[in-house]
Amino acid sequence: MSIPDGTPDGTAEPRERLSALWSAHAVRVQAYLWRHTDPDTAQDVLSETFLVAWRRLDDVPDPALPWLLVVARNLVRNAHRAARRRRTLDEELASLAASAPLPEAAPEALAVERDGLLRALAHLTEREREAILLVAWDGLAPPEAAAVAGCSTATFHVRLHRARRRLASLADGPADGPAGQGTDDTRSPAPSRRSA
User: Fold this and answer.
1) What does the radius of gyration of the chain's CA atoms come to, in whole angstroms?
2) Would you say residue 192 has pLDDT above 60?
3) Cα(87)–Cα(90) distance, integer angstroms
């Protein structure tokens, strides 16, 4: 592990302390990580654990190993949550892509448009997505779609209007940055009026 240049208080002492922590505990922290995650993630989390120790050197108690293991455990949990969110989004996109009708225009332009639309659909709530898909992809009229959705036709019309408006704003704007980078949860809060 390379120790960052500079020290919190401008002395060599913190740098020496971090080196001592690394020498004394890196192998044990890595063994803990190997039991709880894959080798690549373990290596990343090991580095992050000692980066946290560097940033919070004054908070590291003696003995340091239990504290380092708690930091490592929390970082592993964060990594697992992020991986689950990525898998869920990938599954949603794959599911939507599998059921999307194939377009007939220029392949490269349509591929970009289709990708943007699928990403926007994946960011809709379940109700919004269902309203759009029942009408646009299943070809149901609003009264039929309302029966499938289990609501009145008027409620379905409101739901469909909101879903179309939200889909348009997500498809037009950078919902999650270029090529899907950014946060996983870009959903806007529910409207203050009674939900349709």
Assistant:
1) 25
2) no
3) 5
